[in-house]
């Protein structure tokens, strides 16, 4: 056969291998500046599709019209990823060290994902089918410039982070390979697509636009705004400091969001970094942050950032838009994403998740609400952040009002010790003075930490207030308290779909403004779960908070007298609820809070208390609960790593026992019906699933199956996705989804 194809439509195999090798080399050069890394990546690109020289594959590729065919159709003839892996082992393995396994991981996994060596890759590559694949490929006599290693001498000297960094380094090389493979294949099948990936404004333009907007916007002359301006000034002044770890410790309402963006843009420009990645713990507030950035950068047009999370909306006509493409590999200067997307990608094995990783090198990562880093995965998260900062040109900004105690800590029980972050530089010159100046609340602690107050007693206290927010720990508690409150009390919880919550929050903000202006004389009372504690800019004169972690109490206080408009201090009342926080981290947080505040006579939110609190809290939990660190240790003689097992265990959101329900929220039920109709007739397009996301609620699978049996839910064409059946009976326009049966009629009235 004179011409070998990589893909249908005459995509020449030799040209594809050479192009992928060149792209992968370029990406790897940007990782750590090490020539060895670039050479490893280039060889992976040169050999990744060696199996496509097989006659069977060449027959197959000429019969199909498909872009990426590895997973599309079953059949032995199309398989091709084992040959290059075995060739790498044949060429590079040495008696004392199997160097070829570095490339075997990458090549064998470039469609299926990184595997575990001992239980996955070793048996697969030892199989007769894999050996036959290599034999058939070599029988086709691939060109010597493809088969040869070009004088490359394998070495693991200089791996970023040594043995401790092997897993991340290999995952970074994997990212270089799979992104290069995708991009070259994409350029063959859609010649216009690469140009649609470009066009985002560069960081320098963003920096200028942000400075211009902040200088021109009208700002009221108030003490709070003066302090926010000083926070911004200090962020700009510290941006020239060397790359590394920073903390931005600013009270809630102190202007952290825009000031941290200003620091990140200026710092990236000063140090030649390529992008800013802004990571947020909650999907419920990511859209708000992205909108703040879009407003500040509006002079540059609509497409200024990539908003990458599960709820980012799309539309059919925008499916191929630049921002959609950039979500695939984060090839954009400004990314707004979630902690889940960022950290699960850093520990992922799947090709689609790993593809973006090489773009993280040479970036500024802002971790908003850094105290929300997941305790059960804190040790592996800190380990990967240390590697990124030390070896991949990354700067990390820990942005929060309640800085967690992330420095290294040794305990008598060594298993409790924490390998933390070192040399974290605070951006604010004098955080204590800033906190004192921005103090806007007085916290009232319970007289007895062991005696709970019944819900009826809490309801009576709340009912005596004209404008009050109550925050409790569970959805069940929110409903129980709501039931005892006067008519007109508003409710917020995750049993309400996103569109419903957004409407209620907008209504609350309007009423708060009207009350400040004397236009609303009716009581405004809200009962909520902790979903309002981050990123929801509401400002009540009085806030009640059920006992929880000290950081949660501080976040609740951030919803009280936020703008400092009250003549005196706002009131934050901490109470012991009649039910304990749920077992697990919520319970341990509450216990650490009690131990920290017991006997505390001064300000319970004094900054110095948070280090004491987090030290006690972290000591009480397993900071590597799923043993991720052990799974990612490399066995030095065999180079065995458990990539797939680690990725399966690193799940920040436990969703195996949860399913999603599309509800018929009254304000949008016509839209919901239309979208569900599309789903049934056209299937789960990406834009459609994102639209439906705004009208979904996540519940336990057992509850959904019970409701399915009762006829209040129905299945959809998507496994694990259910939809409300009928108009009434399941979704209350005040409380959201009801899990215990069918208590509402078609009009939403309680039966």
Short synopsis of the structure:
The chain is of the alpha/beta class.
Give me the secondary-structure topology.
Layout: E1 5-7, E2 11-12, H1 13-32, H2 35-47, H3 55-61, H4 81-92, H5 100-108, H6 117-125, H7 128-139, H8 144-147, H9 166-189, H10 193-197, H11 203-216, H12 223-238, E3 245-249, H13 256-271, E4 275-280, H14 283-296, E5 306-308, H15 322-329, E6 334-338, H16 339-346, H17 351-354, E7 363-368, H18 378-391, E8 395-400, E9 424-426, H19 431-437, E10 441-444, H20 455-463, E11 467-471, H21 475-483, E12 490-492, H22 498-516, E13 524-528, E14 542-546, H23 550-557, E15 570-575, H24 585-597, H25 607-620, H26 628-631, H27 643-649, E16 658-662, H28 669-682, H29 686-693, E17 696-700, H30 701-710, E18 713-715, E19 721-724, E20 731-732, E21 736-737
Parallel strand pairs: 3-8, 3-9, 4-6, 4-7, 5-6, 7-8, 10-15, 11-13, 11-14, 12-13, 14-15, 16-19
Antiparallel strand pairs: 1-2, 16-17, 18-19, 20-21
Helix pairs in contact: 1-2, 1-9, 2-5, 2-9, 4-5, 4-7, 5-9, 11-13, 12-13, 24-25, 28-29
Kindly describe this structure.
The protein is built from 30 helices and 21 strands. With 751 residues, the chain is of the alpha/beta class. It has four domains: 193 residues, Hypothetical protein af1432 (Orthogonal Bundle), CATH 1.10.3210; 200 residues, Rossmann fold; 185 residues, 3-Layer(aba) Sandwich (Rossmann fold); 80 residues, no CATH class. The protein has a seven-stranded parallel β-sheet with strand order 5-6-4-7-8-3-9, sandwiched between helices. The protein has a six-stranded parallel β-sheet with strand order 10-15-14-11-13-12, sandwiched between helices. Strands 17-16-19-18 form a four-stranded mixed β-sheet, with helices on one face. The longest helix has 24 residues.
